[in-house]
Write a structure and sequence with these properties.
Chain A: This is Urea carboxylase-associated family protein. The structure holds 2 protein chains of 2 kinds. Chain A is α+β, with helices and mostly antiparallel strands. Chain A has 5 helices and 13 strands. In chain B, the strands form 3 sheets. In chain B, strands 1-12-3-10-7-6 form a 6-stranded antiparallel beta sheet. Classes of the chains: A alpha+beta, B alpha+beta. Zinc ion binds next to loops of chain B.
């Protein structure tokens, strides 16, 4: 499984990045210090109009939270990636991003001229920068993931941000089921309570994933995910190597 | 919160019936009030709003949810744009709770939710695709179709993070009324969903009324 070397890097706090991840690779993401928030969005690099769809992801799996076993769906009924490991049990995908004004109000405005890399970058601006690299703009910004952050809901629908949810060493693994353009930022969750700007880095390892087995936890999580994998298989049907024995990720099941 | 309106239907300047499977796309001016009436009960009105001056500013479910600290929409809820500006406020509501988590039905998500062979069944996102194609004057495309409101749908969240599609709490004649804070394009898909028991597999018309 290790014909390709693993790539490991640290994404510093208050930063943003994007990369194309090939089908069959996985991203292992670790909260290094505890209290991190990783904003993420997914696009199809071959059709940038296909993007992560939070409502479809939630309703297809009857869940409000994201955790191990869940698949992250595009608006086209396909799966960008599956959550194959998760030490936390709950990640948010409905609260969106911090903004320049919300960060200034909560933590004070520290711009780059004053603070350099210790500036108070916000999630909305961070995504705008990455989107623009692919000819995209604010119209293309969908509801994003906030990995490592938990926001629960009571019977009356009220939200509560759960403090101290993620601890140092907590990890989540995303296995990519199709080629995906991944946008990410390490800006604070928009509901993080007032106080000092939480400057938290994350560590990322990009490596080859194990093949998807018939009893895969994401594939078998619910009948809906089985059909989602079949939609991926249909999309990839013309892809050379998809069905070959060495195509390590030929695991889109037709049973 | 249940709040009755003081407006009379006979005073409305516009009264349109929207059949199931059709879309409705019109401009509502700042200060005008629009009412969506669930004529026969438990029908979903999948709705999006855009600034008429610049449709790239539009209803944002996540900004609305976060800024009001609640996942349900009802009287008093201010619908926020992706620029965090107030777009409309819900000023009357005889249903009590509306969903903005579950999104719209689409032919693609139908294949996942119900069956791969349901891919050709009519769905809300198809209605929106036709709306943007037939109304080129608004300059909108698929890029503008985002995370919507489902008026009259009941989608509670459980304590352990489950999402449930509960029995409808709407009924014939229930309505929601919104006052526009800016000139907005309203885009409704009156849901044609035939797979979901929420509407007893019977999509029905809604009515849109507008007052000056
Ligand atoms: Zn629908």
């Amino acid at each position: 499984m290790s014909e390709q070397a693993n790539y490991t890097t640290t994404i510093p706090a208050a930063s943003h990045w994007s990369l194309r991840v090939r089908r069959g690779m996985e991203l292992r993401i670790k909260d290094i210090e505890g209290g991190a928030n990783l904003g993420m969005l997914f696009y199809n690099p071959e059709d940038l109009l296909e993007r992560y769809n939070a409502p479809d992801t939630l309703k297809c799996q009857h869940t409000f939270k994201l955790t191990k076993g869940n698949c992250l769906y595009s608006d086209m009924g396909r799966i960008f990636c599956s959550i194959t490991e998760d030490s936390l049990g709950w990640h948010d995908t409905v609260c969106g991003n911090s903004t320049k004004s919300s960060i200034a109000k909560r933590f004070g405005d520290k711009n780059y001229q004053q603070a350099g890399n210790q500036w108070h970058q916000n999630g909305y601006t961070a995504f705008l920068v990455e989107l623009a690299k692919y000819g995209l703009g604010k119209k293309d910004m969908a509801a994003n993931l906030n990995l490592f952050s938990k926001v629960s809901v009571d019977d009356l629908g009220n939200l509560s941000y759960v403090a101290d949810h993620s601890q140092a060493g907590d990890e989540i693994v995303l296995r990519f089921e199709m080629d995906t353009l991944v946008l990410l930022h390490t800006c604070p969750h928009p509901l993080h309570p007032a106080g000092k700007y939480p400057a938290k880095p994350v560590a990322i390892t990009l490596q080859q994933a194990e093949a998807v087995a018939d009893d895969d936890i994401c594939l078998t999580h619910c009948a809906e995910n089985g059909r989602g994998f079949k939609n991926n298989a249909l999309y990839l049907a013309g892809d050379a190597g998809f069905t070959s024995a060495t195509g390590h990720h030929g695991g889109c099941h037709d049973h | 919160m249940i709040t009755e309106s003081k407006l009379n239907a006979t005073d409305a300047v516009i009264a349109d019936t929207v059949l199931a499977g059709d879309y409705y796309m019109k401009v509502v001016k700042a200060g005008q009030t629009m009412r969506i009436v669930d004529l026969e009960g438990n029908q979903a009105a999948d709705t999006l709003f855009y600034s008429a001056a610049d449709p790239s500013e539009r209803y944002s479910a996540m900004d609305t949810i976060r800024e009001q600290g609640n996942v349900f929409l009802t009287t008093g809820t201010v619908l926020m744009s992706n620029e965090c500006n107030p777009m409309l406020e819900i000023v009357a509501d005889t249903c009590g709770r509306h969903d903005t988590l579950g999104g719209a039905c689409a032919t693609e998500s139908n294949t996942v939710r119900y069956d791969l062979e349901k891919r050709c069944m009519h769905a809300c996102r198809d209605s929106w695709m036709l709306a943007v194609a037939e109304n080129e004057n608004f300059g909108m495309t698929k890029r503008d179709i985002t995370h919507n409101i489902n008026f009259f749908m009941n989608v509670p969240v459980t304590a352990d993070g489950g999402l449930t599609f509960a029995d409808g709490i709407s009924a014939p004649g229930k309505y929601v009324e919104l006052k526009a804070a800016m000139d907005v394009i309203v885009l409704v898909s009156n849901c044609p969903q035939l797979n979901n028991p929420c509407n007893a597999y019977n999509p029905t018309p809604v009515e849109v009324l507008i007052w000056d």
